[in-house]
């Protein structure tokens, strides 16, 4: 991962350099060391509680998060707006 994190581009799980600022978060969640399975189940529930277009800032210290979270966003249609491990900004999909 590039220094300073990155944001999703295209269909790859590759992170690109982050924008000059992180998006404003509508909610925050510290997932700590939670592993992939539990992490994505809880993430799904937390995003469902937000309105479409809202941004959730998640802190995930699990070493798999830099690859798991971009892949999960791509598969579910949510947008990984910014990533700077261990912080990730996920925008809930519309509709």
Give structural notes.
With 95 residues, the protein is an alpha+beta fold. It has one domain: TusA-like domain (Translation Initiation Factor IF3). Helices cover 26% and strands 31% of the residues. It contains 2 helices and 6 strands. The chain has helices at 36-48, 65-76; strands spanning 6-8, 15-17, 27-32, 55-60, 79-84, 87-91. The strands form 2 sheets. The chain has a 4-stranded mixed beta sheet, with helices on one face. The protein has a two-stranded antiparallel ribbon with strand order 1-2. A hairpin with a 6-residue loop joins strand 1 and strand 2 (15-17). The protein starts with 5 loop residues before the first strand and ends with a strand. Residues 1-20 have low confidence and may be disordered.
Which key features would you list for this structure?
4-stranded mixed sheet; disordered N terminus; Translation Initiation Factor IF3; globular; alpha+beta; 26% helix; 2 helices; 95 residues
Mean pLDDT: 85
Shape: globular
List the quaternary state of the chains: single chain
**How many DSSP H or I helices?**
2
Q: What is the level-2 CATH architecture name?
A: 2-Layer Sandwich
Q: Mind telling me the CATH superfamily name? A: TusA-like domain
- Low-confidence stretches are 1-20
The major sheet is characterized as: 4 strands, mixed
What distance lies between the first and last C-alpha atoms, to the nearest angstrom?
Answer: 31 Å
Structural class: alpha+beta
Strand content: 25-35%
The CATH topology is what?
Translation Initiation Factor IF3
